[in-house]
Amino acid sequence: MKNARAIQYVTDERGKKQSVILAVETYEEMLEDIQDLVVVAERRKEKTISFDDMKKRLKRDGII
Q1: Residue 23: CA atoms inside 13 Å, Cβ hemisphere, count?
Q2: What residues does each domain of the chain span?
Q3: What pLDDT sits at residue 6?
Q4: Helix/strand/coil (H, E, C) string of 7-41?
Q5: Distance CA 3, CA 18 (A)
Q6: 12 φ, ψ to 5°?
Q7: What is the Cα–Cα distance from 37 to 29, expressed in whole angstroms?
Q8: What region does 15 belong to: left with phi over 0, alpha with psi -120 to 50, or beta?
Q9: Dist CA 2 CA 24 (whole Å)
Q10: Half-sphere exposure of 17 (CA within 13 A, CB side)
Q11: Is the CB of residue 24 less than 8 Å from the CB of residue 32?
Q12: Contact of 33 with 25, CB cutoff 8 Å
């Protein structure tokens, strides 16, 4: 997060943080990270394959 220092807080009259203001770029990076974590969680129980098998599949499909 390059823009971490661009974070601003909105506080109440006692100084307690109530809201946050982020640069759009920072917000979008955070959303992308959350979406990546959702995909990982959804696929957690899927069977894994070896790196060599993956390379074979990619070659077979003409991707590499």
Answers
A1: 10
A2: 4-60
A3: 79
A4: CEEEECCCCCEEEEECCHHHHHHHHHHHHHHHHHH
A5: 20
A6: -85, -175
A7: 12
A8: left
A9: 12
A10: 6
A11: no
A12: no
The residue assigned the tokens 């990982």 is: 40
- The amino acid that residue 44 corresponds to is R
Element containing residue 51 per DSSP (H, E): helix 51-60
Contact predicate 18/10, CB 8 Å: yes
Residue type, 15: G
pLDDT in tens, 38-64: 999 999 999 999 999 999 999 999 999
Q: Which amino acid is at 54?
A: M
Neighbours of 27 (CB within 10 A): 13
